[in-house]
Amino acid sequence: MSQSELYVSLDIGSSSVKVLIGEMANKSLHVIGVGNVKSNGIKKGAIVDIDATVQSIKKAVDQAERMIGKSIHEVVLGIPANKMMLQSVKGVVAVNSENREITDDDMDRVLEAAQVMSIPPERELVNIIPEQYIVDHLDEIKDPRGMIGIRLEMDGTMVTTSKTILHNVLRCVERAGLQIRDIYPQPLAAGYYALTEDEKNHGTACIDIGGGSTSIAIFQDGHLVASTVIPVGGDHVTKDLSIVLKTPTDQAEKIKLEYGHAFYDNASEDELFEVPVIGSDTKEQYSQKYISEIIGVRLEELFELILDEFYRLGVQDLPGGVVLTGGMAKLEGLPELARNILQTRVRLFTPEYIGVREPQYTTSVGLIQYAYMEDVFYGRIGSGAALGNQQKVEQEPKPQKQRPQKQPKENGEGVVTKAKKMFDRFFE
Predict the structure, then answer these.
(1) What pLDDT is attached to residue 424?
(2) Is 300 exposed, middle or buried (CB count within 10 Å of its CB: 0-12, 13-18, 19+)?
């Protein structure tokens, strides 16, 4: 019988906070709980109001808890791409065992060796992503355990972020009564899940268009090589519609979702709808063609900014094209507009699981998939931490947000676990 593991992901975005409960077994995900609420206290991907953000997280958690009748204690947390930096690192150690066989202990030590470098005081380590292992100058090894050698090296990417941004996010999660199981950058999780193996290898940009910001993740040779954020998203389109149509923001959002079209050439002139005017009982009538011009101008600006970021990052060519995802990606005509401006292949990605078949859930699902992949690699499946917590809570008459003691994980710890312990010490 296959071993299943429960995961809960927490994706804190500018427009919404999403909590996803999933059961992983044999690389297959079964979504059993979803919480999605409008976020307050977050602007352009950064937290500006701790208390408002905590309340948003609690509401999203409560929604997901009601779907399964159990209490959530532990989450896989996504860190926003704001101020995130990638840096190449290298770790080198001598193999410890007498018979020179590489073990989990050697893997841990080489990861620790890669961290021995100065990090500016205003920045914090998120995690280290191994790219390849080298055993006695034999490179391109994915998993060296069991091999015989004298010298073990690891080439990887160190992910750091602003200490202020990170600690504000961690503070909100703590105040919401949640414990952190793993921490990953949101662009890494989204790209890992949304891109095919060929796309990751050939060179592809995963563009996540959210409410307050747009994150770009560049993958090449199977790894995340660059990431950046543009402070423009779907909320800016809503604001433009609200100003031009002289209608309340909630009505502008509704119009964008129901009648919006990003590509002017394909929008309909015949499709008419009424729009209430602020400070008046009257309603104005507009066509889809008219509002597509308003939407298109803002999105053209966004894709021009994306091209500028490609140039700044030194991205000359993207053989794998561009993959669009995020809440704004479902807007009709967006792939056509992106194709027209970016002059490359464009694909829209949407998760295929029941209950989360919308692009806005890509990061949430990606966090679970990435955490599961790491647990499988480090032999942590069945350690009982997440599943044990859920079973214990099921016997409680009333769900309570108490923080249980962290269960020790066997067979060595990944670098993310070590980083998480460092964050825990910050709050002690």
Answers:
(1) 55
(2) middle
Report residue 319 as tokens: 């053989």
Distance of alpha carbon 321 from alpha carbon 325, whole angstroms: 13
Pick left, alpha or beta for residue 423 (phi over 0 → left; psi -120 to 50 → alpha; otherwise beta).
alpha
Longest CA pairwise span in the chain (Å): 84
- Per-residue pLDDT of 55-66, as tens digits, reads 999 999 999 999
In eight-state DSSP terms, residue 181 is: E
Q: Pick 44 or 286 by higher pLDDT.
A: 286
Q: What is the number of residues in the chain?
A: 428
CA neighbours closer than 13 Å in the CB half-sphere of residue 78:
32
Among the listed residues 323, 346, 319, the one whose alpha carbon sits nearest the alpha carbon of residue 203: 319
* CB-based contact 387:407 (threshold 8 Å): no
Q: Could you count the other beta carbons within 10 Å of the beta carbon of residue 253?
A: 20
Looking at the DSSP bridge assignments, the partners of residue 219 are 204, 224
For residues 259 and 267, what is the distance between their CA atoms, to the nearest angstrom? 10
Question: Which pTM does this prediction carry?
Answer: 0.87
State how far the Cα of 189 lies from the Cα of 362, in Å rounded to an integer. Answer: 8
Contacts of 308 (CB under 8 A, 6+ apart): none
